[in-house]
């Protein structure tokens, strides 16, 4: 036992192997920062804000979103909060994301980034018994973007219908 103890201590003090290189978040650079929702102020429309921030020493990007919706003719006021984590499984793999919200939804996305075209698409996988989701951010100009969230029914996973359209302005 006396011989093993120094060996165990020496092994535990040995330098840890180099961690894999953090993902290159250049493709998401435009989205990074704090954003405030823009709307026309019509009855029933909400207000909100979200952010995209690197976390865990730039190993992931976290999007946090909060929206407040006033009471409408047929519904009470409510709030919506969600969290999305963008990550990369392996250095040569594409970006992925996982989404959670206060309504109990969990959505797994593949992420397609075309920053030169000013477009970022989060697309869920096709599942036989679940809707399919597509969340698209489109750059309008240096400080604004358009957001579109679409849903397709399980039986027709490529027939998306717009559920939410919104705009956002980079917060100063």
Structure in words:
With 172 residues, the protein is mainly β. It has one domain: Calycin beta-barrel core domain (Lipocalin). It contains 1 helix and 10 strands, in the order αββββββββββ. The chain has a 10-stranded antiparallel beta barrel. The N and C termini lie far apart (62 Å).
What is the CA-based Rg, rounded?
21 Å
In CATH, the homologous superfamily goes by the name Calycin beta-barrel core domain
The arrangement of helices and strands along the chain is HEEEEEEEEEE
Question: For the largest beta sheet, what order do the strands appear in spatially?
Answer: 1-2-3-4-5-6-7-8-9-10
- Give the termini distance in whole angstroms: 62 Å
The average pLDDT score comes to 88
CATH topology: Lipocalin
> Which CATH class applies here?
Mainly Beta
Name given to the CATH architecture? Beta Barrel
Summary, kept brief:
By secondary structure, the chain is mainly β. The protein has one helix at 4-13, and strands spanning 33-38, 47-55, 60-69, 78-88, 95-101, 106-114, 119-124, 132-141, 144-152, 161-170.
Key phrases:
single chain, 172 residues, mainly beta, Lipocalin, 10-stranded antiparallel β-barrel, 10 strands
